[in-house]
Amino acid sequence: MDEPLKGLIFDIQGHSLHDGPGTRTTVFLKGCPLKCDWCCNPEGIHRYPEMLYYESRCVRCGHCIDACPHGAISVVDGLARHDREKCAHCDSHECVAACYHEGKCLTGKYYTVDELMQIFQRDRQFWGGKGGASFSGGEPLLQRHFIREVLRRCKEAMIHTCIETTSHVQPDFYLDVMQYVDWVFTDIKHMDPDAHKARTGVDNARILANIEALAKKEDWNGVLVVRVPVITGYNDSEENIRATARFIRGIGMDALNLLPFHRLGESKYRQLDQCYPFAEMKPPQDAHMRALQRAALDEGIYCFVGHETPF
Amino acid sequence: MARTFKEVLSEAGISMDFEAGGKAPAALTDREIQREPHERVKYLKERYMEALSSINNEFPYWYTREYMRNDLELPVVRRALALKAGFSHLTPAIYPKELLTMRKGPFVRGSFAMPWLTNSFFLAQGDALYQAAMKSGSASAGEHSKFGAGGGNVTQSFGNVVSVAGKFGVRQEEVGILVKLAHMWQDKSVEQISNRYERMVPGYDIKEQVMRSLVCMFDSGFTLPQGREVINYYYPLEYGFDGIVRMCEEKMAECAGDAGGDGMVGTNRLYNYYAVKLVIEGVQAWIENYAAEARRLAGVTPDKQQATEYAAMADRLHHIAHHQPRTFIEALQMVETLHIAVVNEDAISGMSVGRLGQVLYPWFEQDIAAGRISEDEVLELLEQDRILKTSIDPFASTGVVGGVLSGNSFNTLSVGGVNRRGESAVNRLEYLILEAGVRNAMPQSTIALHYDERLPEDFLLLAMDVIKSGAGYPAFMNNDVAEQFFMQHYACENITLEEARAWSIGGCLESQPGVWKTIHLNGKAYEVPGGACQPTSVGIHFLAMPKILELTLFNGVDQRTKAQVYPPHNRKLESYEEVWDQFKLYWQLSCKVLELCNNLQHDIWRKNNMAVFNSMLKPGCLDSGHLINELGYRFNATYNVESCGTVTWVNSMAALKKLVFEEKQFTLDEVREAMVKNFGFKTAHEVNSFSISDQQKREDDDGRFNRLHFALLQAPKYGNDDKAADEVLLEWENWFCDDCANYQSLYAKPMYACQISVSTHGAQGSATCATPDGRLAGTTYADASMSAYPGTDRNGPFALLSSATVWDHSMSQNSQMNVKIHPTAIRGPEGSKKLLDLIRAYMRKGGFHIQFNVVDTKVLRDAQAHPENYRDLMVRVAGFTQYWVEIGKSVQDELIARTEYEGF
Q: An example Gene Ontology cellular component term from the record (chain B) (predicted)?
């Protein structure tokens, strides 16, 4: 027998209200091809399980230091610091087992397709008429074979599916897998290729091409909603939003969802021994978000700010 | 081609034409539910907020005087004469601007003691009362129950006001009379007479231990002998008081000396009808006193409009003192009057109004049709009704009123459900009742919505708005599950499906059967539901499951007091089955002795202190001539066994099963030692917080329990769709719900399971040592019976609701699920629909009850630190809504700790 397909997942949220129409169950897959410096799910970037360290729960007992076979843990200012280079090669995670205070937890757990489907089958009773399964990340389309099979099984089980994607995905696979997807949220971080590359690590050519191809795909009749995470001083100019809106209109689509930057991911950076670069950055002003919304409306498309969506 | 957004929305029936180029209406994007009451109601509410809970001696003085004078009279007549004297001497108190009136005593928040029920409290506290510096009650429950320090509670004496029972203020000069009255009932109160007989029950010493250790929260027969039931307003609404008196006179003539085929109590009918007539005369005199006062005020009030209002009020009161109400406002006044009359007859909490919107509909419909009243005026009246109901303070000792009730009176109002034919029973008046609940959000009447698939969608969505206003109501109750419970349990009294449909919530979530009656108004007939059963939540009160587990693990010895509560079992407890078996034996031992003792208490109550007025209202006492004490009610199988701490117990058993008996990671001795040592933590009383999240390690702790404690905390927990825990719950429910039928009430009917915690999870948790689920000593149990222990439901609400429905809720009178949800999670109209989806799914899976606290935990923390800024903050506790500042600290802590669900 073949080893069953497994996917690496870092969170499953039931009663998810803002990841598609209705009430949903959202699965977060680990691994992402982009490196957006404002990322609010940094634990979703790497394609391997990682240890998260919760300083506030640490009682400074030192048990994890004794337990680590790699000598990766040191003490700085009374708190544990981890050499994440060494951690990257560790798959035994003795430090997590040694902690009795939940100061260390593992993020990233392997699920089989069946296990995931079992959760959906349980949760679907609670979704109500419009809900379904959502897939986020990371980039949910990165674990190709797994996600394709899960989406196919959902379709078979008549479960409404939604993905939140960067669209930075191999084009043939992208268009193929969409046959199992009912609703797509895709990010366009910036319309300018250089600016896009500067803070995500990749340029936007493939992303825009994928989105356009999907919008025009003859045999696909799902819903496509573009999202822009609005980052102060980066992509929050009226000009960029208008350009995005024109792109949307140009490919025959009509919906834009602006998501104001928030700092909710901040604590996760500390848990990963990383420095959070935006501790000082303010979320965009509400008035500015309204101005951007007006600009997009002006271009003749629907525009929603944050969770003020009609679905 | 991908579909455009517009196509998708129009398929869903949503028009988006306003959006392109324009601005979405505020209602779509930003709807925080906050509406104001009418000006008049706002004024009256301010008066309520300023008022303090007060007692005086008027009623007890006249009651006692008349009772003692008639010492050779038959018990029922003697009781009736005393009640008549009490009612007819109550001083009326009418306040400016109010349209509805009548209250318990002559204060905004008036109450009074009933020493004929229980007087030991005053006897014990007499000296201390005289010194005007009384501390909390002497009973164990009193020590573990503290009221919220703020609000209208008089927790400490000041000036000329003496604090009684930690809640009520009494004028200094009345203290002497209060204590003297208590002495007059020496050896005569229900409490003291029944105690003489209780001592004859074999195993009475165990009962004493069970009460002292707080395995059981409080006695039944003399604390709150009635309540957790639904009043029936039918007879006065149909016939008027004069009509009922006439009926009694006819019946007396018919029954005098006639056994009517019943050689035991047949001849009693004469005395019973006579007693009813006497009490009604007292109530009529009381209403006429109010009418006279209104007339007097009309004459001396310079303000013309106010004087006119007083005159109209006098006219209404005079009319309803004798006849069927003519208008909606008269019908509503009649209902207020009846309600207060019933709660003045006995020490009562949880006397619920039932399906009021359906009872009052005849007057509403005809007044609206005739243009006699507008919907806005109805709304104003319904808003004021909430003030009157919230002003009712039940009187009992601190342990009961604080530890169990959090000062709440549970005048629950039910909406929804189905009519006699099984169609949706929702009417227009019920929409207004919900609306009034938003506009004048106050704890009473809390609203119970009987959910049924047949209810209209817009009504349910309106209910979502009410929930979102943060009022904590309506709670959702499952109509189907309740009907199934009635059909099973009341089969012993031949209930019909039609009768089961007349059910209602009495108390916080005690479902009970009712009957249909036909009201005739101006030639039109209306079928109305109403209460028809004895009090529920009587019998065996609140058995602390985690405490009994503690006693099981420690050979019957209480780890807090070191007392031997149960006889030692001397078993080695070498298997999970052995622990479970011994737990059941101790549980049954408690039930048996409490069954017998409480039956005696209720028996003394029914012989000397029986309900006359409340009894008369309930079908079919007037038909049969027998009151509550002679099985006059349509349904009498209402006694129950109440559990508390279910989920804490389930988690404890699941942890023992896995770690000690299956995987053998730890020995039972290791677990026991860690429990006694509280896993190296300070006690909750030292830390002065009863929430697990605030507990602190002892300074000298060497960490030797850390591995064990961690393993226990990580063991399977209820609420995660984890079979290892959920199967423990299932096994418990199947056993418990069956076992209850082994106990018999004094009315010779089998008991049933009641699974609500009210506030006892705080007080009983406070008396329980650390438990094998990792919970620390003295901290509260998981609330309710289906809520997860705070912080342990890690897989979200779907997993929680799945765990909760592994068992059939219709085996039990109720179950209880409290969920805390963040306001942002349910914003906007989409948020409303999603919340309804969640509730509906739980109901479809067979959940009986769910309710929500829509509040940010940060707000609660701030409210605890600065109560002065939060006088009107309301929270859902466990089956009821209460002002934050009027609940005790242990329950406040538990509310803060509850897992908060946010949407992402």
A: cytosol
